[in-house]
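Allow me, if you will, to draw on your knowledge of protein folds for a short while. I have a record of one protein: its chain in single-letter code and its fold written as discrete structure tokens. I remain grateful for any guidance, and I place the record below:
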Amino acid sequence: MRTEGVAAAYDRWAPIYDMIFGKVFTFGRAESIQRAEAVGGRVLEVGAGTGISLPQYKRTTRLVAIDIADAMLDKARERKHRYGLDNVEDIAVMDAEALQYPDNAFDVVVAQYVVTAVPNPERALDEFVRVIRPGGEIVITTRIGANTGLRGQIEKALMPVTTRLGFRTEFPFSRYEAWARANGRVELVENQPLPPLGHFSLVRYRKLPG
């Protein structure tokens, strides 16, 4: 996967993304927003896409929304204007693997269905840790691959197709575990399967002090 290819793929998704994925990911979006607002403060939503989540946050929550696909963000800008979302501080084209924000700039990073869509997930996760304050949280909704068995074989076989569409099917939780050990600055606070069928999960990490 390459950044340019992912951006192009999601630019193509922009006109129909909400229609196809809006209902499927409703529960996961609501849960991740709830977790983020329990921490409060300033939230960076990475992979905000069409901005479908933005109106669901409380107006007291300060938001910054980024995505690699500008055509997706055009929809988010329309939403901000339509709903008068004055709490959305900025909507910007940005690479999740190279965030243009200083250390400790946010209280929460929300990444909904995006980690498996970036070319170098561990690099993006490291960036999420960098830009949140100690005690802040990374709230992720993510596809969890089976890794073994028939489902694991199917996911591996589908990878050439899904990569062209802009996401991975093969992504076991052990990859998150290995990243967290290597990073050394986070602790897992939640790993909760989500409907439908538990193929997706809500995963939260807290940044350790120091």
